[in-house]
Amino acid sequence: MNCVLYSFDIWKNNIIPALFPVFIISDLLINYGFVELISEVFKPLMYFLFRSSKSSSFVFIMSIISGIPSNAKYILDLYNKGLIDSYEGSKILMFTHFSNPLFILGTLSISFLNNKDVGFLILYVHYITNIIIGVLFRFYHPTKEEYSKVNIKKVIIEISKKNVNFINVLINSLIKSINTLLLIFGIITFFLIITTIIDYNLNFTMYYQSIFNGVIEITQGLKYISILDIPLKLKCILSTFIISFGGLSGHMQVMGILKDTNIKYYPYLLARLLHAIISAIIMNMTFDLYFSI
Fold this sequence. Notes:
By secondary structure, the chain is mainly α. The chain is 78% helix and 0% strand.
């Protein structure tokens, strides 16, 4: 019961405030043509870095703001609108795994690690590694779109012709967002119960218990890492590793949202393993330099 109540507190205090408004706003933006506008502006950059279609820029930018599993929600919306196919969705999913910046700068750095300075370093390392992952897999299902000159005026004219019923869009957005949030709550609760049962029945040392819990559910793992008697540098390396992997709970949230599509999980899993390893290496290389400046 304590585990379920703790899960509910995480969902109520962190997940809903962070994701619910963003889900609603993003759905409204999609229906009112914001995807087409931002896609037109950033399509040269997305093609140059990732060899991905222009629609991927919307998922990339919105995911930086809101974090996972909202990237899966945006991909699903674009997939249902016919703006991307399953191959493109699988590719975009690989390099849009951003942890919520408020979680890193607030919950992790201040509440857990009790050091606000490390939050910006973890955020930087976690985000820059995502871009590295995108570049590494730029030739995985490269886009077949013709690279053309940006024409914002033409896009604005096309958007102005849209005839969208605001009430219907809002109601559909509310229903979809609430269903997605309930799915996230159920998955978080399930994995927290699993980690609690394992912790009570297996004789792990605190160090290995922290890593194991983090691989399954990141919040629980990060909380345990914060109370370990180890140097701050090692705490940051482990925290960055866990955030970049995303936890099996986060993986299931993503795939639960995308369950009715043909978007593949294994490329996403491979990307997360590389993301975790590379980000931990970069953190190890930059930590001392960051605090010496």
